[in-house]
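Input (Endonuclease/exonuclease/phosphatase family metal-dependent hydrolase):
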Amino acid sequence: MRKLLNKLVFVANSVVAFALLLSYLLPYVSPVSFSLLSVLSLAVPLLLLVNIFFLVYWAVQLNKRLLLSLLVLMLGLSHVLSLYKISNTTKVAAAEGVSLMSYNVHSFNRFNWIASDSIPHQISTLIKQEQPDIFCVQEYFDTPHIDFAQYPYTYKDFNNDNGELALVIFSKFPIVNKGSLQFKKTPNNIIFADIKVNNDTLRVYNVHLQSHKINPDKEALAKEDSKKLLQRIQSSFKKQQNQAELLSTHLKSSPYKNVVIGDFNNSAFSYVYNLVRSERLKDAFKEAGSGFGKTFEFDFFPLRIDFILVAEELEVVEFKTFDAKLSDHYPILSRIKF
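Output:
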């Protein structure tokens, strides 16, 4: 009976190991060319965790079948490090460097997804406590119950196809130039601001790539038509590729050190992430983060889809993910030095 069980487990192990191995190609496979395969990028965290489970399962039995998952995981070590980062114990002085924060605020709970009337006030309080020097907001909605008066410089952009939600860059440093990539036929967009920081200038991009319009709740997902859901994700991935290509071109033309902040609606295992990061940027979470770095409320596995990517010349001295359940996303903060 034990032998039969192990054979069945190994078959399942082989399927999951092959799927993970296949996922290693995703950063180099265009969603426009292979949109169905690109969907796998959202499941990579689950594939990693399941392969780790199988590795432990065989290791406990001292069974040589552990080599399958071990080999696949070793081949994708960079993927493992994108999923989980061992804590960096280096302590950073509170005032050292420039702090950057990103938060998709989900329009400040205007449709009461969370049973609380104080969400805007709680978000305002969080930002006042953390005091980020540069604060990028996605899905900003004008409401009288928020207060970011500590920022003397603001760039707010309501994309031309969306009169309600905006991307906003708040700054304690002067904004000397600003602009929008102006995506068409979508409320998603990318804006940028050139920010004078002492004797240097940063070009900060606030990014909100194409949304999938997925309700992460288990019951809501169970009611979804799987074929339509898959088609919707494939379509949004194609749009994300076009948007990321526009960003990549814009990054190349920047005369300053670039910082890309925001909601990619995709994982660190995706084509769009790899495309943007390849423009001489590094992931602040990988440099100074800890744990799973989960940034999106998803019941099935930890999902990191919000990023702070900074120019390779900049030093990342701190990264934090906040366990603040005030949106469907979690805020992230990084501190950098020139």
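The mean pLDDT is 90.
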